[in-house]
Amino acid sequence: MKSVAPKSFRAAFAIVQRKRTFWKLIYAVRTQGAVVASLGDLLIAASSEIRTTIERYCRTAGLPQPEIEAAILFALIDGVAQHYVLDPENYPLDTVTEAVVARYNTLLAKQGGDNGTGVA
After folding, report:
1. Is residue 97 a contact partner of residue 10, using CB atoms and an 8 Å limit?
2. What is the tens place of the pLDDT at every residue in 39-88?
3. What stretch of H or E contains 40?
4. What is the sign, positive or negative, of the torsion defined by CA atoms of 66, 71, 72, 78?
5. Is pLDDT of 1 > 90?
6. Distance CA 29, CA 33 (A)
7. What domains are there in the chain, each with its CATH number?
8. Which of 2, 17, 70, 109 is the most exposed place for a label (fewest CB within 10 A)?
């Protein structure tokens, strides 16, 4: 995960930055009860796929409780994206991105995570 984390975080936040209008629409749709009800299974499947991918990265990196770490990381990425979309002029996306990368690199170093090979 160490080798994947910086690229993944930066890529995720860059997509939100480039496609801000799309993500603004996604966040607006997610607050509409009737829309969420009609798309429920699709939204659950998409979220599950993302969380499973993140969990696989966490497990490969040797993090304890990879399913919990994946839930935290998914929420963190989603929260950063949402805050940026809501206030792009004032939200320090680049600084926050680098702080997220640094925290996960520190966590992985303490854990003994992967050594850049993708294998714990």
Report:
1. yes
2. 888 888 888 998 999 899 888 888 889 999 999 999 999 999 999 999 99
3. helix 33-60
4. positive
5. no
6. 8
7. 5-111 (1.10.357.10)
8. 109
